[in-house]
Design goal:
Layout: H1 16-33, H2 42-61, H3 67-100, H4 103-116, H5 121-128, H6 146-166, H7 170-193, H8 195-206, H9 216-222, H10 228-240, H11 252-270, H12 281-295, H13 309-319, H14 321-337, H15 346-366, H16 376-395, H17 405-413, E1 433-438, H18 440-443, H19 446-455, E2 459-464, H20 467-470, H21 474-485, E3 490-496, H22 499-503, H23 529-550, E4 555-559, H24 569-578, H25 590-607, E5 614-618, H26 621-624, E6 625-626, E7 629-630, E8 633-634, E9 637-638, H27 650-653, H28 655-664, E10 678-679
Parallel strand pairs: 1-2, 1-3, 3-4, 4-5, 5-10
Antiparallel strand pairs: 6-7, 8-9
């Protein structure tokens, strides 16, 4: 979306029909972000066309002095229109993040704000938010301002070009219309019909500012090079309007054409269209209809004159569209962050819309309507103050001294274990050792595992595991583990992974194309849940046999998956602390976890039936589940850093479990084969 433009132009040509277009655009975008309107994102394109029209008219009818004075007047209007409300919402978003967000989330917010100081946040989001339509990122509170950045970047070039062509000497005026028509046509052609060249140039340009590979899809979506044609459609409507007779049939044709175009725009937002790229012909149709509506707008009239109550309401929504644009996204983020699930209850939508209306009315009548009290000289100070202020917010450091000890405990214990495993190379092992094998879930427990191992006189060798390592690359994994297990001093292996998801699918089975975590069998993908479980048994069973053949006396410790919560545990702990949640989410029932664990034990019984080595099942149930539910925090110490990865505190809870396993290693002869022996008392529902 974009900033509303009426403040940048004289009041004489603010007509109700333009406000109606603004109103439908802002409502469409808000409903699209609420996932109510299939193609509400077209509101962004409508706004860009309106902006091109209104800015062209503002430049034409504005200050009639020299080139420099006209330009100064234009930018003065832009500054006093955009900066004050934007500053208010930016500070509010920063304070919300400062108060609620965890460190990584807060730093991401600060980085976005830092780019906002120079209106370059669209470039920042090319790299960080590659899919704008992925849903509401509840911690990316400034994502919506990408369109404001696009608009401001357009204003750096277009006003100069317009004033040079249309307000200068006769020679330039003679070529102004042909040149602008050619420029508009070229912008449309390269953005829609021959976008490969423009895409290459855009990605190359952005590569000067961004690190790493740039995805072409977000580069097209966020970049001014692929949006300029929409503004130029607005210029075309401005240029065409004076040449269309306004008195034909008493001006009725204008009302009829506007009503038809407006109705079609509304209908377009209701139709869900699957398109391979953006922009596309559907977007062109939307922009053409918007331009047609602008051409059909009547002559200037005082706002509110001879309007029905519905018309006056539409004008008011259009007038306040900039405030609505600024507030709706941070407010959405806050609602989602505090457990509002839009789509679940109608009251959620009502609560959001009422809250938004209150913020919009207050901001419009206190900040926006007072902007003309800012003189041109003070507008420069306002701009510089905004730039310095946003930069200051971006580098501000949170002092935990402002927070209570309980909240500090939440921040500290919700961190993820970032330490490195001590040994990766057999040459570094100096005594008896065990292997920690697994993916991110093994990483989340490795510090505590190494600590307990050291207490029992063992070194730890880390070997990376993953879904691919167990499936596609199983042969390579078996060779690596066989080499390690046959080495002198090997005593056992602890395997820690997201087993339930790999074996059964959690949540229930989805096809591989949907991104599930089931194991393949070589290059063969499972077609259903039954095949996925079969593949898991074959892959893990072969791995057990390989390890057992290399070291029959070694112990295979298989740690069952820790309870997976239906939410991000650290965020829920924070909501518990603040009492700011809209709705509490129920933790994982202990009975469900018992059922999942029992199912995995049955699978292990089949896998280990002919494995000569001992297989010990490490069950974390009693450390996480008490009574009917599985805990996600102990008082204000958080057990998880998300929904299923343990936090730096959560891994310490498993210390006694690891201690019990290390006590058994090497004390029982390898004749023991007991997949039913449980390390850690099994939980009963």
């Amino acid at each position: 979306m974009r900033g509303n433009d009426e403040g940048s132009v004289t009041r004489s040509y603010r007509v109700p029909q333009i406000e109606y277009l603004r109103a439908i655009a802002v409502v469409a975008v808000i409903l699209d972000h609420l996932d109510v309107l299939p193609s509400g994102f077209l509101g962004v394109d409508i706004f860009f066309v309106i902006s091109g029209f209104v800015i062209s008219q503002a430049l034409w009818e504005g200050d009639r002095g020299s080139f420099v004075s006209s330009l100064k007047h234009f930018y003065y209007r832009r500054i006093i229109r955009i900066i004050p409300p934007l500053a208010v919402v930016t500070v509010a978003s920063f304070l919300l993040g400062w108060f609620l967000f965890f460190d990584q989330e807060f730093v991401r917010l600060q980085r976005a704000i830092s780019h906002q100081s120079l209106f370059l946040q669209n470039i920042y989001f090319v790299e960080t938010v590659t899919d704008y339509f992925r849903g509401i990122p509840s911690t990316t509170l400034t994502l919506h301002t990408w369109s404001l950045a696009v608009e401001e970047q357009f204003y750096l070039i277009y006003p100069c070009l317009f004033l040079l062509l249309f307000r200068s000497g006769r020679i330039l005026k003679a070529i102004a219309i042909p040149l602008m028509v050619s420029l508009t046509g070229a912008a449309v052609y390269f953005a829609i019909f021959n976008y490969d060249r423009l895409e290459t140039a855009t990605v190359s340009f952005l590569g000067q500012f961004l690190v790493g590979e740039i995805d072409s899809s977000p580069a097209r979506f966020y970049s001014i090079s692929f949006r300029a044609w929409e503004f130029l459609f607005g210029w075309a409507a401005f240029a065409l309007k004076p040449h269309v007779p306004g008195d034909w049939a008493g001006g009725t044709w204008r009302r009829v054409v506007f009503l038809i175009g407006f109705s079609l725009l509304c209908a377009m937002t209701l139709v869900e269209v699957e398109v391979p790229t953006w922009p596309n012909l559907y977007t062109v149709g939307c922009c053409l209809l918007t331009a047609l509506c602008l051409v059909a707008t009547p002559a200037a009239q005082a706002q509110g004159t001879h309007l029905s109550p519905v018309g006056r309401f539409g004008v008011y929504v259009g007038n306040t569209s900039y405030s609505a644009y600024l507030w709706h996204w941070p407010l959405l983020g806050y609602f989602v962050y505090t457990n509002i699930d839009f789509g679940a209850r109608a009251w959620d939508y009502l609560a959001f819309l009422c809250s938004l209306a209150v913020l919009v009315v207050i901001t419009y009548h206190t900040v926006e309507k007072n902007r003309f009290r800012i003189t041109p000289a003070y507008s420069v100070l306002l701009l510089l103050g905004f730039m310095a202020g946003t930069y200051g917010l971006s580098v501000a450091t949170r002092d935990y001294g402002w927070f209570s000890p309980a909240k500090q405990r939440i921040f500290e214990t919700s961190q993820y274990d970032q330490s490195a495993c001590g040994n990766y190379d057999l040459a570094t092992v100096t005594r008896r050792f065990v292997v920690l094998f697994g993916e991110s879930h093994a990483q989340a427990v490795r510090t505590e595992f190494q600590k307990v191992a050291n207490e029992h006189g063992f070194d730890v060798l880390c070997v990376a595991g993953s879904r691919l390592r167990l499936g596609v690359s199983r042969g390579e994994t078996e060779r690596d583990l066989a080499r390690v297990a046959s080495a002198r001093g090997y005593a056992g292996i602890a395997m820690v992974m997201r087993w339930n998801s790999y074996a059964f699918g959690y949540p229930p089975y989805e096809v591989e194309e949907s991104g599930n975590r089931f194991l393949s069998l070589g290059d063969v993908q499972p077609r259903n849940a039954q095949e996925a479980e079969t593949f898991f048994k074959l892959n893990v069973g072969h791995l057990f046999k390989t390890i057992s053949a290399a070291a029959p006396s070694g112990d295979i410790g298989f740690m069952l998956q820790v309870p997976q919560n239906p939410f991000f545990a650290h965020k829920e702990a924070l909501m518990d602390f603040h009492g700011l949640r809209f709705r509490s989410l129920p933790p994982k029932p202990a009975s469900q976890y018992v059922e999942e664990s029992a199912r995995m034990r049955r699978v292990l019984a089949e896998i280990t039936a002919d494995v000569p080595s001992r297989v010990s099942i490490l069950d974390p149930a009693r450390y996480f589940c008490v009574g009917r539910n599985c805990a996600y925090r102990h008082e204000w110490s958080v057990l998880y850093k998300d929904d299923d990865h343990l936090s730096v505190y959560g891994e310490t809870v498993l210390g006694p479990l690891f201690d019990e396993w290390f006590k058994t290693i090497g004390k029982v002869e390898n004749r023991l084969q007991d997949p039913g022996r449980i390390i850690g008392r099994p939980l009963t529902p």
